[in-house]
Amino acid sequence: MDRQIFIESCNRLFSSSKLNYISKEKALSDDLVSVKMFNEPIIAVTDASNYEFENLKREDVIGEHFMLPTEWLPEAKSVISFFFPFTETIRNSNKENMSYPSKGWLNGRIEGQQFINDFSACIVDFLDNNGFKSVSPSIDKKFFTNADFDENGINKLYTSNWSERHVAYVCGMGTFSLSKGLITDKGVAGRLTSVITDLHLLADDIKIKPFEENCIMCGKCIKNCPVNAISFEHGKNHKICSSFLNLVRSENSPRYGCGKCQVDVPCEYRNPNYVHIKKLGEAESQLKNGAELVDGETVLNKLRDKHGRKKA
Question: Which residue among 132, 177, 191, 304 is buried most deeply as judged by most CB within 10 Å?
Answer without folding.
Answer: 177
